[in-house]
Amino acid sequence: MQLKKTLQAVYVLIIAVMAMGTVVGKYAGQADAADHVFGSWWFCLLWAVGLAVAVAYFVRQKVRRPVLVVLHLSFAVILLGAFLTHVTARRGMIHLRQGQWVASYITKDGAEKPLPFTIRLDKFSISYHAGNAAAMDYTSEVTLNDDGNETHCRISMNKIYDNYGIRLYQSSFDDDLKGSYLSVNADPFGIPVTYLGYALLFIGLIGMLIDWQGTFRRLLKSDLMARPTVALLLLMSAFSSLKAQPALPKATAEAFGKAFIVYNGRICPVETFAIDFTKKLYGKARYKDFTPCQVLTGFMFWRNEWLQEPVLRLKGSELRTRFQLDEYVAPMRLFGQQGYILGPYLQDAQENQDAFSRQVLDIDDKMALLMDLAQGRTLKMFPYAQRNGRVDWFSPADRLPRSMPKAQQQYVRSIIGLAGELAVQGKIDMLNDLFQRLRKYQYRFGGSTVPSQTKVWAEKVYNHVPFATLLFIFNLTLGLVSIGFLTRRKGYACFAWLMALSWSVLTFTLALRWIISGTVPIGNGYETMLFLAWLVMLLSMPIMRRIRLMTTFGLLMSGFMLLVSHIGQMDPAITPRMPVLNSPLLSLHVSIIMIAYALFSLTFVSAVAYFLTARSQRPQVAKVNAQLTGLSQLFLYPAVTTLGLGIFIGAVWANISWGTYWSWDPKETWALITFMVYAVPLHAQSLPALRRPMGYHLYTLLAFLSIIMTYFGVNYVLGGMHSYA
Question: Three-state DSSP class for 562?
């Protein structure tokens, strides 16, 4: 008994220390947290004590089932691998300059260590996404010399050099592109042992699901899967009109919207930029009766008039109160006798994090957007093929290449101004012809950088139909309404078909984003929330034929996730991925993790449903309530399995990408915390409180907080390498 209590105490203490370490990293820096918390002797000792106590308890319990032995042995092997990495791994950095031989690397402590070869940088290069300055990959072409034997190789993101017992990773580069930084990693003992542990973990987790004597198989064979189940909850879900402003006819504005522009690091229709431009200023995709393209061209061609329009939305009350402004103000309203009224506050706002400062910076960003548009800096609409064959896109305000013909330079400089003159003069036919010629120019000089017709079509559909917005309203509404039909078998069946329809539409939405970006849509927080909602519905549909309540679960949970994608700091903009994310392991890692989150969310919903119906005196409700624990456990086992597999694949990806399979990044740490938190209910035989439905559901209800922290808290509070997701 004392052994079990000691194990529990150490287990909780480890989780608490890891959580504390991520907070320390937030304020003291990740490096300090790695050195003084995660890499400290006492933290290693704590893990060692926990392992020793766990082994002793395991032996005392006389556990002999092979699956359980392999599963728990995997953790011991992983910890051994981590210890070997900690004490034997050698890491450092090489700074290479083009044409210079280097024979050593610098460790973290500043010591110089010899390399088993000499290395020379032949060339460093950056490859870009088509037509813009967004980096797609960084590559160092190097020569290695070992006693006169030279080897040429390329080292880039997700492509390492592995030989002589060390691995080299592309890390950074010099501003002049004539120098490169390579990370050095030598871990001959820790990585093989850790990978062995991961292999055992994989076998153990899968075995836990297929073990005929296991709890999960017992749940599958129980009559739970043949009976209907219960109910649940959840949530919910203004236009202005003033005098008209001069603007292009809608058809003409839309014709301009079909032209291409470099925006958010990719080439897209001007319409996409216009939508984001209007949303940025006004908070909505339309202003009055004007389309986004009309708003954009209004500011381009009738700037003085549109600067008088109350198109700037002031989000916070603090700024409005101090300057006595309405929620929507005209940009010119921010200028007084003393000039720009926010000017005196900008420097302090950069240093402070209070609400007023954030509001000042937000409005200043909007004014900067208008200024950049007025000066033409945002209008990168003019492609030109350089002598090296690379196609770059320029704005009228850019410094144009000397190799560009003078006539073409004149065209780039004057076309927007000419369009403005024609617009003001009302020569719409000539303006339409001008926009048509602009598109021909882009196709002629843009070459392969111009998006395909399929991408253009996909983006047009995506821009014009707010699928995700409609779906969160649709799913939440249906989910709430379906609760009233739980006792009506025929009427309730239609909700299953409607969820299938919703899933199909969401699939189409994700496919559109895939076509537009050219990559699997799981690269940021917004996309992963859409993907998570898609997974929740996908996982619900096979089960709902036997467990009718899964229809309500699936609709409400997916609707809630789609709602979350619309709030907070999630950005729906489609942007190119950073180079390190261009790995096939990313898709696998994120997909599996999202499956785990989807399943954990269903355990949360089961807990909510349990507590909502626990006091009901109706026999039918009480009967169904009793089945919720089994239903939740049915979700829990594959959830823990997929989370463990996702963490393991993420570690492999990290090892391939930047030379370390575990760096105690906040997202990594909290994923491990979540795994450890949800592993507890799997040991209900040793924990009497979790064998009771009330205790079990209360635990899963509170455990979901770790999911929220892992997914949202890390991204928006703690930061780290995973803050993009």
Answer: helix
Q: Which amino acid is at 621?
A: V
Biggest CA-to-CA distance, the chain: 91
Please answer whether residues 115 and 105 qualify as being in contact, where contact means their C-beta atoms are separated by less than 8 angstroms: yes
Residue 530 and residue 572: Cα distance in Å, rounded?
10
| Cross-strand pairs, 120 | 101, 143
Structure token pair of residue 385: 């093929």
Residue in the structure block whose two tokens are 């203004």: 238
What 211-220 contacts at long range (C-beta under 8 Å, 24+ apart), as own/partner pairs, is: 211/65, 211/67, 213/65, 214/67, 215/633, 215/637, 215/682, 216/633, 216/634, 216/637, 216/638, 219/630, 219/633, 219/634, 219/637, 220/634
Calpha distance 483→131 (Å, rounded): 52
pLDDT exceeds cutoff 90 at 86: no
Bridge partners of 127? 137
Answer left, alpha or beta for residue 692, where phi above 0 means left and psi between -120 and 50 means alpha: beta
For 210, phi and psi rounded to 5 degrees?
-105, -5
* Amino acid, res. 588: L
Query: What's the rounded Cα separation, in Å, for the pair 318 and 125?
Result: 48
Phi-psi region of 376 (alpha: psi -120 to 50; beta: other; left: phi over 0): left
Given pLDDT bands bounded at 50, 70 and 90, which one contains residue 120? very high
pTM of the predicted structure, to 2 decimals: 0.61
Give a three-class secondary structure readout of 57-113. Answer: HHHHCCCCCHHHHHHHHHHHHHHHHHHHHHHHCEEEEEEEEECCEEEEEEECCCCEE
Which segments of 311-466 does DSSP mark as H helices, in order?
317-323, 346-351, 355-374, 406-424, 428-446, 453-464
Q: How far is CA 202 from CA 185, 206, 210, 464, 597, in A?
A: 26, 6, 13, 44, 18
Distance CA 108, CA 634 (A): 47
- Reading the block at residue 88, the tokens are 């034997």
Q: What is the pLDDT of residues 258-290, one digit of tens each?
A: 999 998 878 999 999 999 999 889 988 888 889
CA dihedral 129, 722, 574, 528 (to 10 degrees): 130
pLDDT digits (tens, 9 = 90+) for 619-676: 666 666 777 788 788 888 888 988 988 888 888 777 776 667 777 888 888 889 999 9
Secondary structure element (H or E) that encloses residue 701, with its range:
helix 693-708
Q: Which residue type is seen at 480?
A: L
Q: What DSSP character marks residue 521?
A: S
Sequence-distant (6+) residues with CB within 8 A of 551 are 482, 492, 495, 496, 499, 540, 544
Q: What is the DSSP letter of 450?
A: S
State phi, psi for 401 to the nearest 5 degrees: -60, 145
pLDDT band at 597 (very low <50, low <70, confident <90, very high): confident
Backbone torsions φ then ψ of 93, nearest 5 degrees? -140, 140
Q: Which residues pair with 181 in a beta bridge?
A: 95, 172
Distance (Å, whole) CA 216 – CA 521 = 32
Beta-bridge partner residues of 166: 163
Q: Could you give the C-alpha distances from 204 to 80, 98, 212, 633, in angstroms and in order?
A: 18, 49, 14, 18
Q: Residue 227 — pLDDT band, cuts 50, 70, 90?
A: very low
Cα–Cα distances in Å, from 114 out to 93, 97, 119, 146, 517?
12, 18, 11, 13, 44
Contacts of 508 (CB under 8 A, 6+ apart): 467
Phi-psi sector, 84: left (phi>0), alpha (psi -120 to 50), beta? alpha
The structure tokens listed for 689 are 């409180």
pLDDT digits (tens, 9 = 90+) for 524-578: 667 878 888 888 888 888 877 766 777 887 888 888 778 777 664 445 666 555 5
d(CA 563, CA 536): 14
